[in-house]
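Translate sequence into structure tokens.
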Amino acid sequence: MKHLDIVVSGKVQKVSYRAVIKAVADQLGIKGTALNKPDGTVFIEAEGDDFSLELFLEFCEKGSDRSVVENVSPTEGELKNYRNFEIVKK
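Result follows.
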């Protein structure tokens, strides 16, 4: 198990990006959160095995049908042992 902090930039807010990412995370068994940031990016915390996280990152680069992903920047972080994947609404 490892933890990734992922910053996704581009047209990724108000285009169902987080909903698609949550569906993919649920299918792959990825746990964590997805949050819209004030700067227009989406911040994702994702935890899972190497193979699942690799597949998840590929989907992060595609996004939803209406999104335009410009950059996906993952960095390893400290494991937080999430129980599921949630969309955080603030």
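Note: The CA atoms of residues 36 and 42 lie 5 Å apart.
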